[in-house]
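anyone seen this seq b4? input:
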Amino acid sequence: MNAATLTIRTLTEHDVDAFHAMRLHAAVDAPFAIVPTHEEESRWTREENIARVRETDQQAVFGAFDGETLIGIAGWRREQRVKFAHKSLIWGVFVDPAYRRTGIGRRLVESAIGRAKASGVEQVQLSVGAQNSRAQTLYSSLGFVIYGREPRAMRIGNTYFDEEMMVLMLA
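predicted toks r here
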């Protein structure tokens, strides 16, 4: 990794193929951390993926790039319903294994938090696998706290995984 060529920015329609490839890679590399299976993720059409990455005042997907290569992603989405509009969600955080433990995940999540603050939401939520101690440590270091645990939230084959729900209060 060359720090001089590392950038974080919101994804655009031009990044959609790299985004889709990364999501497919994530579904295989970290099946307990990414909800869709590889098969489910592969069914998303190009148009659906463009809608997923299209930046609006309600959503954005941040990408970490080493030069022109997408190496990490994190999504942010604000609740649209009026009674929930004070909240937003960080989703789909994934860093290519070759770039882990370099601070890229932190920078991606910080970008999403920055977007949440700029949007005026009062809190940011996320869920993380209860067995994913590295991600939990990252989120805790950014001020997220656990507010609940869903037992058996995900099943892969015959193995169940608990999820911990975390929140960061901005206001």
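The first strand starts at residue 6 and ends at 10. DSSP finds five helices and seven strands in the chain. kinda curious what u guys think
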